[in-house]
Specification:
The protein is of the alpha/beta class. The protein is built from 20 helices and 21 strands. A seven-stranded mixed sheet has the order 9-8-17-18-19-16-20. A six-stranded parallel sheet has the order 1-11-3-2-15-21, covered by helices on one side. It has a three-stranded antiparallel sheet with strand order 6-10-7, with no helix packed on it. It is globular and about 65 Å long. The relative contact order is 0.20.
Amino acid sequence: MTEPHGDPTQTEATTIKKNTPSTLRIGKRYRAERVAKDYDAIVIGSGIGGLCSAALLSQMGKKVIVLEQHYTAGGFTHAYERNGYEWDVGVHYIGDMGRQSAGRGLFDYISAGQLKWAEMDPVYDRIILGEEKFDFVAGKENFKASLKKQFPLDTDAIDQYVDLVVKTTKYMSGVSQVKAMPSTLAKVMGMSSKNRLPDYALDTSYNVLKGLTNNEKLIAVLCGQWGDHGCPPRESVFLMHALIAGHYFNGGFYPVGGASRIAETIIPQIQLSGGDVFTYADVEEILVSDNRAVGVKMVDGHCLYADTVISNAGVVNTFSKLLPSKVSASLGYQQKAAELKQSMSHAGMYIGLKGTAEELQLPKTNLWIYLDEHHDANVAALRADPSAPLPLVYVSFPSAKDPDFQRRYPGRSTIEIVVGPCDYEQYRQWADKTWGKRGDDYEALKQDLSDRMLEALYKQMPQLRGKIDYSEVSTPLSTSHFCRYEQGQAYGLAHNKQRFKQDWLKPKTSLPGLYLTGQDVVSCGVVGALMAGMVTAMSVVGLRGAGTLMKMIKAGPVAAGKNT
């Protein structure tokens, strides 16, 4: 579940405390005189896709500069600290980190084996429909057994569901690799059935599950992680559902030392070939000369040049804001990007409590709290009336998941709550006001959100009532401010059927020298964006280079740290 950095204008349920500056600043502060002149590649944005591409290209001997407009690197994988507490902003949990999966192998390689993972409780997700609770348990057989206890008449459907999820996820590897290939070869490879998605994969999650069972409650439970990709069951495609569900079948994991360790361990690999990651580095425009991307212009007027420019800023930002309008329009990208739906916006709450996770009885299990089994109807009700009951309340306990948290923050704990969808129009009137100074009416709206989120939390964990030491609320404006998503859409493009039918959503653009990476290229989520980073690097270095790169990654973290 991804959520933006919290607003520093806090709305506490208890006392208001003076903010203290964040100390979690990863990366080097940009100054024109601090950057070199001879980079092989420029990466716009330090989200995990951009960091992965940069680290892999560095291992291939390329000098790469990563430019991040925020005060710290990491994109949605960064963390922030305030008033003696620390929260992640998007890495609430990651799957498949306990075995030699593709994602784990890639993380190991680009971090030189320095990024460690802690396993969550066997029950990684608890789906709550009204008064009923259903557990997702690590291990496919455990997952099935737990659900069969509560749905004894649907045992065959549960078996078929798990098999179908596993089968569907296997298609994505071939589809992703085709994205890295030259257009002519991609067309040929795309004809293979293993590299082509079956029709059912792009049908809605609800329709596919309805073909397995008529039990609406079971369908609602199986779709209980829809907040991880941002589309309720009748809007999402089954492919995205399967990628999320299958990703967690072997349990959930959390980075030891917190989310900031992701960027912190990857940056040294970028520096090996002379590159670096700069923060407060705001790119104004992608420079184009002789019909190719040749560099970037910073907001301070300084220009950087390289043969390769990789945008991790999202396709809408890339083609509507960064690429010169005439160029973008002539290539057809402006219209293509404008026609795609954006993912839904979120609001969130960041909570600090005195006491350890054990003392406060905080689990490592995520809570997905729903009104009932009618996900789509409840979302529709909120879209029609923002004061309607919240259809989705997600609760995460990062301090309980991180075994290193008590060393860094002894006697303290944190909770994060995410709710959605949010209507950006409800917040637009404050969009042009200064961040942190949006007025009493904005604070009143946040207070209402705070009250509603806390009541959902207290209903599940009544022992926490009255124990909150610090809290603050974020809105879609927070995502817009910190991550430059204009409407606060945390997942970029909506991962619906239309999005997966866009052949142009691949790393190499039709403008020579310009590449894309991040969650708009492969899929959303940390590992989805991570894999996009790899696919983009493969596209940049070409077929022969891609083969070398894959061998290096398979060699594991022992080889990392030694560029070619």
